[in-house]
Design brief:
4 helices; 150 residues; 3 helical TM bundles of succinate and fumarate reductases; mainly alpha; single chain; iron
């Protein structure tokens, strides 16, 4: 017995024969690819932070400062940050497309999601690459114990 499916009800369905980039297809592919890479990055992050060494007891400011002093971990964290934020933003965009019925409301929500993702990516990247646990000129009583006395 053959079963036929109705055409999608989405007002964003691509008319057949239209040329150009299919952004929905590339968004779908990105979600699958970034999801796989995020699984590796997140479980690697958890393994290093929780399983190697003393476990949760070792997580403190010094541990994080030591990790962020390494370019490898800086890039690992930035890749995780970027992929997770873009992945989440794309998922939120899909939800807005599915449930926001008014064109103006949909546009406002999508611009707000884009603004939040861009701001968080910029701020997070700046934090990772400019982090200095021992800033020059800080009072000695406010610095961590591992900072050299200046």
């Amino acid at each position: 017995m053959a079963t036929t499916l109705d055409s999608p009800r989405s007002p964003y369905a691509r008319p057949t024969g239209k040329r150009g980039t299919n952004w929905e297809k590339w968004g779908w592919i990105y979600m699958r690819g970034s999801g796989v890479v995020l699984i590796v990055l997140i479980f690697g992050h958890l393994f290093v932070n929780l399983m190697i060494g003393k476990g949760v007891d070792a997580l403190n400011f010094g541990f994080v400062a030591g990790k962020l002093a390494s370019p490898f971990w800086q890039w690992w964290d930035v890749a995780m940050l970027w992929l997770a934020l873009i992945h989440g933003g794309n998922g939120m965009r899909t939800i807005v497309n599915d449930y926001a019925t008014q064109r103006v409301t949909r546009g406002i929500f999508k611009w707000a999601i884009l603004a939040a993702v861009v701001i968080l990516i910029v701020l997070g990247t700046l934090v990772v690459f400019t982090f200095d646990p021992c800033p020059a000129g800080s009072p000695a009583d406010l610095l961590p114990k591992f900072c050299p006395a200046i």
